[in-house]
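BUG: 3D viewer hangs when loading the predicted structure for this chain

Environment: internal workstation, default settings.
Expected: structure renders.
Actual: progress bar stalls at 90%.

Input used:
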Amino acid sequence: IIMTGYDSTLMKRGLNILNQLVDRPYNARKFAGLITNIMQSYRDAGYLLASVTDCGFDSISGIVFLNVDAGQISRIELAGNKITNPTVILRELPFNEGEYFSYSQAEQGLTNLRSINLFSDINFFVKKENEQNILVVSVTEKTSGLLRVGFRIDNENHTQLSFDLRDENVI
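Structure tokens produced before the viewer hung:
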């Protein structure tokens, strides 16, 4: 049995699952079921983009092989930010290009982006291009400009007119 992948702990767990095939005749249906179990263990560990890139059985050597890609982020693209500087969004993400995408980091990134209170909607989605995972961070910006007009009349200062102009998204 030959298994390649990212996380050594998950690979050991995967090899333990595949050990059910040792010293037994090859059964494609059984192998497919075991691959499903291995992928479930990657999902349970939070690797949402994990996928099997290659698997099979060499009937001459009797070797079962499996290659699991844990889901590396090749590129991060931003969509929907017209006013907000891209570095403001990227600094709030706890992962970078070239790292593996995990559920806990995605959850933390969404929490961080919501906490800066500049967006009404935030979504992550992944698109595949040329066998690469491109993470798209799509945001809908809140209206950041505010204009208030005030009017006041009293006996001491007489009539007063005030304007308050603000932009919360200056960075």
